[in-house]
Design brief:
By secondary structure, the chain is an alpha/beta fold. It is 20% helix and 23% strand. The strands form two sheets. Strands 5-2-1-6-7-8 form a six-stranded parallel beta sheet, with helices on both faces. A two-stranded antiparallel ribbon has the order 3-4.
Length: 202
């Protein structure tokens, strides 16, 4: 069992990111048994959940003639336009049915503000608006995080980089993550995480 100061952060294990979902990550559901097994080693388990309103500005459907996975410019910087996904209260936003959610002490919902996307578990994409996770970890005396989930090159990466910037010791368990890999984004993500002293384990 890991010490109480070491938490497991499970990123976005939701139906829309699994095969058959609106923004499916290849083999996204294959990691669920391993994630469940890893939960047994941690006193503190935290889940994140994408939780978008129907009119979220990151949806390609909200931009005239925009194709999914194209780029646009938002006030906070470049933004990928996604297929509609993880809409609040929908089946797609629900956790995968086999994920042992009862193990979680905290669920952080993100991306619920219509005008800004939120990849990281710690901050929205302006890198300033907090989710509250950092405060929770500080109150609990947590100083080390292991990350698993979806997707390696987006929400896992952003969460890992923010955690490292905030001073946590961070490990990403790569065998319990899966990537979207848009135009080489997985290799870019790995390089960025290594540069930030994030430990990448298989």
């Amino acid at each position: 069992m890991q010490p109480a100061t070491h938490a497991l952060l499970v990123i976005d294990m939701q139906n829309d990111f699994c095969p058959g979902g609106a923004l499916a990550v290849q083999e996204g559901d294959a990691i669920v048994p391993g994630v469940n097994a890893l939960m047994q080693d941690f006193t503190t388990v935290i889940l994140t959940q994408d939780w978008h309103p129907e009119d979220h500005s990151s949806f390609a459907s909200r931009h005239k003639d925009a194709e999914p996975f194209s780029l646009t410019e938002m006030p906070y910087g470049p933004q990928v336009l996604w297929p509609d996904h993880c809409v609040q209260g929908s089946k797609g936003a629900a956790f995968h049915k086999d994920l042992e959610t009862d193990r979680a002490h905290l669920v952080i919902r993100k991306g619920f503000r219509p005008q800004i996307d939120s990849y990281s578990a710690f901050f929205e994409n302006d890198h300033e608006t907090p989710t509250g996770l950092h405060g929770y970890c500080q109150e609990r005396g947590i100083d080390r995080l292991t990350l698993v989930g979806l997707a390696t090159d987006f929400c896992v990466q952003y969460s890992a980089l923010d955690a490292a910037r905030l001073g946590y010791a961070v490990t990403v368990q790569q065998d319990l993550c899966r990537a979207i890999d848009l135009d080489g984004s997985l290799e870019d993500a790995r390089a960025a995480m290594l540069s930030a002293n994030v430990v990448l384990e298989n």
